[in-house]
């Protein structure tokens, strides 16, 4: 039996009286990109920050590469990389020192050649000695990519990963995301760039007001809202999230697959084969 590298089970997150994420469950399989989309304030960043352990988990369960985030925090976090929407490197560390720090933290073998390759790839090699405080917005983004990639994570969370990148950086980042997927990493890719999601994601998770409104493939979504096979994710997005009065054009609930075991399941090792998501 193989568990998906990322399992989120009934995750909820409240900020005072506002429920930002509401009973959200999904999983991401090995070598799969899950596209996370939703309107402003839908709860995408809160979801990613909860999985990454940046926000303490209030309700629900997160399992990363077989490790329960609450019970085995360090083991779970060692298998996870997170590229936040606004990366903030340490002001007093250089670019090269960031990669050394990350590599040592994650016990990466033979990290130096990997770091050099990543710096070349993301066009940071000539800024290796620059301090974090000296980096532009796009350079901080590229450094965040390098730091995530060097740990060879089982699960990678990407929050608006292309923001701030120049055209060459965008091309490199897209290729790097696909290669990471091909190496078997489970990726959650959150973005408002629906063209990016449509091009890279294997499945889509649409959330609105913290609630899942759809999980599945583009084909599933098109079928459920009677769109043609040429209709884009943008059409599906509007159908799923409705107009701003809250009205949904169509319900997509019926085709959202249940892929994880119920909370409190007796089988702590996870779901049976026939209950798991894509392997
Ligand atoms: N630290 C916080 N304190 C209070 N409320 C918060 C905090 N972080 C997020 N929220 C609220 O939680 C809800 C979800 O925010 P979140 O940033 O997760 O949305 P998002 O889908 O990432 O939005 P966007 O697309 O605009 O980035 C919003 O109502 C937001 O105001």
From TrEMBL:
Residues 6-234 form the ABC transporter domain. Gene3D superfamilies: P-loop containing nucleotide triphosphate hydrolases. The keyword Transport applies. Pfam families: ABC_tran. GO terms for molecular function: ATP binding; ATP hydrolysis activity. InterPro entries: AAA+_ATPase, ABC_transporter-like_ATP-bd, ABC_Transporter_VariousFunc, P-loop_NTPase. Residues 269-279 have a biased composition (Basic and acidic residues). PANTHER family: ABC TRANSPORTER ATP-BINDING PROTEIN ALBC-RELATED (PTHR42939). This is ABC-type transporter ATP-binding protein EcsA. The gene is ecsA.
């Amino acid at each position: 039996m193989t568990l998906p590298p990322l399992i989120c089970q009934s995750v909820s997150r409240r900020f005072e009286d506002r429920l930002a994420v509401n009973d959200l469950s999904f999983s991401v399989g090995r070598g799969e990109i899950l596209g996370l989309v939703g309107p402003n304030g839908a709860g995408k960043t809160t979801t990613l920050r909860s999985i990454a352990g940046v926000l303490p988990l209030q309700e629900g369960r997160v399992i990363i590469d077989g490790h329960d985030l609450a019970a085995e925090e360090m083991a779970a976090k060692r298998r996870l990389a997170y590229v936040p929407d606004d990366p903030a490197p340490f002001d007093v560390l250089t670019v090269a020192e960031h990669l050394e720090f990350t590599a040592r933290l994650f016990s990466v073998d033979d990290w130096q050649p990997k770091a050099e390759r990543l710096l070349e790839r993301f066009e940071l090699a000539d800024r290796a000695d620059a301090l974090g405080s000296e980096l532009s917005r796009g350079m901080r983004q590229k450094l965040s990519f390098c730091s995530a990639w060097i740990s060879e994570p089982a699960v990678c969370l990407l929050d608006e990963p292309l923001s701030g990148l120049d055209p060459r950086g965008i091309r490199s980042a897209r290729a790097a995301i696909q290669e990471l997927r091909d190496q078997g990493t489970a990726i959650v890719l959150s973005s408002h760039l629906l063209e990016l999601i449509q091009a890279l994601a294997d499945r889509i998770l649409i959330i609105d007001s913290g609630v899942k409104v759809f999980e599945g493939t583009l084909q599933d979504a098109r079928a459920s809202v009677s769109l043609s096979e040429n209709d884009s994710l943008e059409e599906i997005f509007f159908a799923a999230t409705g107009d701003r009065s809250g009205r949904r054009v169509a319900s997509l609930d019926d085709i959202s697959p249940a892929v994880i075991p119920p909370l409190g399941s007796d089988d702590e090792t996870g779901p049976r084969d026939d209950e798991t998501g894509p392997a």
